[in-house]
């Protein structure tokens, strides 16, 4: 096909006679051997067909191809002419030669169209601009030649289709090559796979500042030539390729000086976070980005320029550097290079504009376990282009001049494995625990502080009822202007302490206040849960109210129905947050609104009415189903609180033993819901005579007659009930007395 295309390019596109001649020669060369004389008749047929078709004027295509064929070939086109066996055999041979040619031509035509679609004719420029610019002349000529080539291929394909019509040849693309299942990446030797991963996933540019250039929208529009799609092939390849992508590449991260999240330029720049913290990102925080924790080699570039910082902000590190170090501390990097932009590089930045290194580098103190830690100045080629460089600077002065003691201190801290208190991790666990007490997802999300506030900027909660603000429009009742719920206010203060200053002692005081405030409600919920659980266990036995094999329509358990409702109402009421008077008054004004709001997140008034109606209408089966569903919903919320409580002190180093709080995490609590379809095991102690009878052959035969393994499974119990008439099994007790001590216990274990 390529040779045909080259020959056809020699002829003008508008010269139909040349096209017909070229098409004739081409098709003849495909279908026939030039030395063969047996195909001369067929060759003449093709010559006439192609020549007539090529010379045809637009709109005159009504003439059938078979009209151009000699009389002796009309039989193959479907005319009502006596069949000639010899002619049919010749047509079959001709068909066998034409079909591959059409398939090959169709394939090349598709490839050519794909090539053409990838060509940008003039990059959006007009014909006048192209003619005026020599730079685009060559590209334009190449595009024209490509258009001409595809046009000729299209004409060629059209002629072959017309030729195939009379012979009823089915057009189909070339057969897809058979895939060898053994020739897969999993079957390659490990060293070959690693070499392939290197070619696909390693790019040294990821460690250069050019990868986050402002001309590439800080990396958002940059292409790094990687193929991360290989990570999703299968679990084995994912594990192997991850170690190459995040282990061999060095990733650059540039932190612009700022006291709060910034959008232009972004506060934190990195190829990994270009869609998170970049101009098109949805968040300024990179703390929760999972990919950062996998990186093994980092190069972090920072500036200690504090121009524009307020007097309060001068005494704390840059927000961006804090955020970067928090993200790095979540992983286990082997190499961390901290490169400081030297003095004199930045335009109009004087000696007084630089922050003290002891303050600026304070976030590095939360790093631990780094094998290779380097603190140095940047080279001239490592300065990000968002920095305004002073081109007339005569010298660059190292930021680390006369800071040897600080260097050694930071190096020893970063490379050691000494315990460290990370306040931001402690706060996250505290926030999760506090949010577990709020059932509304909307109000729960609002409990997380979203702004950078200093300790003194957070208002104290208004706990008195002298000035009640009742609003006509329902809103978040826990955050009404300055009347903030004590928990929400304390959370904002706690976050300000760990996000901006890492004042761990002050944070622990706020944490203690929050936990003590929530402890009262936790005890109420726990007591209601334990009461419900005890009632269910007592009744989830043989012939009990919740007997898994019992009849829910039994009418002799009226007290249990009302007891169950009282316990459920107490359980539901225990989840209402403890709030000061002004919040309760605001919620009471819009009581119906908040009742509807919380309806889907608890049992709710409607479901309670449905349970009472089921009792009134004696719909016992419906009551049981709805009651179990309500208990499971409340149990799920309580278990969320218990799970969060167990992780409260996860980030408090045990060796320091400085929680400053006497709240117990209650790690012993079960995290399982009630299993309604299995009765509780019977652990009632047996008398000596009962135990002796069960151990005898007579007792074993009597009990074994009820079940093949010797246990009474029909009663959903592992042993005897203390209230059973023991004589029903054929055993007698001479004096009827029970053993007061030494009784044994039988259970399913």
UniProtKB/TrEMBL annotation:
It comes from the Eukaryota. This is Uncharacterized protein. Residues 722-738 have a biased composition (Acidic residues). The lineage of its organism: Eukaryota, Fungi, Dikarya, Ascomycota, Pezizomycotina. Residues 1-24, 32-44 have a biased composition (Basic and acidic residues). Residues 1-68, 697-749 are annotated as: Disordered.
